[in-house]
Amino acid sequence: MDIDVLGALNVRENGVSIAPTAPKPRQVLALLALHADQVVPVSGLIEELWAGKPPRSARTTLQTYVLQLRELITAALQKDTPGQGELPRSAKDVLATTPGGYLLVTGGGTSDLREFERLAGSGYRAMDAGDFPGAARKLREALGLWTGVAFADVHTGAQLQMEAKRLDESRLCALDQRIEADLRLGRHRELLAELIVLTSRYRTHENLHAQFMLALHRSGRRGEALDVYHRLRATLVRDLGLEPSSRLRRLQQSILMAAPETPLSLDQTPATPQQQPPAATGRGRLAQV
């Protein structure tokens, strides 16, 4: 089974989609796919579907959705060719009922989420080891797995909404580190267009703005780098009642005093990816070049 959740939901068995079009069965499949090869409790599925206000028939209705998914799986399994001595699989083997809930069995198939986490982890380790070309490559591969917002075409309840936010934060962290790796490799001019878009989207994310300032400064555009700082400060004060962090203020002062060709660095201890803060404030470590 192959699973994609980093964008539109796509679950395939033998290359055949088993994703239903009806909203609630699709929601059930999304939660099962997110936790593939793990038991998802019936109570968790009911909470996801009905947000604390389940109908009396909730369990029966959930069983109906599971049966609908198994019908799709059965159709996909018709293309299955068991090896010699192997028994043919049934839909109940792929979507199993357990004492506590339901289990979607991938059978060693692919998962874009698991591959993202593997590649991003490799990228973080490369960053820690000072292998910036390797980090940029691995993190770029990880980010390339995303095709949109997680579960983009799924009606999400509280659990899937929370997971979508968590995944977006993981993506943003990987993006932040990939940009830092590119800055350390001297790719400041190549980053400018991307950082224009990102700082417009994440208007209070300090680290992205710091990276944009550094890229502009290294491209000989000091005035524009200082404009980025002033726009961020105005947004932080207006929207959050906060001044920029001391590290960002130091970066501004460094740009004011340095010649465009002077490389800048910030005297600070690098944080691990797990220490990155939420995207809402973006007070992560500032990039260095």
Report on the architecture of this protein.
- This protein is mainly alpha-helical.
- The protein contains eleven helices and six strands.
- The protein has helices at 23-34, 42-50, 58-77, 91-94, 112-128, 132-143, 158-184, 188-201, 206-218, 222-240, 246-257; strands at 2-4, 10-13, 16-17, 39-41, 95-97, 101-104.
- It has a three-stranded antiparallel beta sheet with strand order 1-2-3. The protein has a three-stranded antiparallel beta sheet with strand order 4-6-5.
- Helix 5 (112-128) packs parallel to helix 7 (158-184).
- The protein is elongated, with a radius of gyration of 23 Å.
Question: What are the key terms here?
Answer:
289 residues, mainly alpha, 11 helices
Shape assignment = elongated
Helix content: 55-70%
Low-confidence stretches: 266-289
Beta-strand content bin: 5-15%
DSSP strand count: 6
Q: Can you list the strand order of the major beta sheet?
A: 1-2-3
What is the gist of this entry?
The chain has helices at 23-34, 42-50, 58-77, 91-94, 112-128, 132-143, 158-184, 188-201, 206-218, 222-240, 246-257; strands at residues 2-4, 10-13, 16-17, 39-41, 95-97, 101-104. It has 289 residues and is mainly alpha-helical.
Task: Break the fold down into its secondary structure elements and pairings.
Elements: E1 2-4, E2 10-13, E3 16-17, H1 23-34, E4 39-41, H2 42-50, H3 58-77, H4 91-94, E5 95-97, E6 101-104, H5 112-128, H6 132-143, H7 158-184, H8 188-201, H9 206-218, H10 222-240, H11 246-257
Antiparallel strand pairs: 1-2, 2-3, 4-6, 5-6
Helix pairs in contact: 1-3, 5-6, 5-7, 6-7, 7-9, 8-9, 9-10, 9-11, 10-11
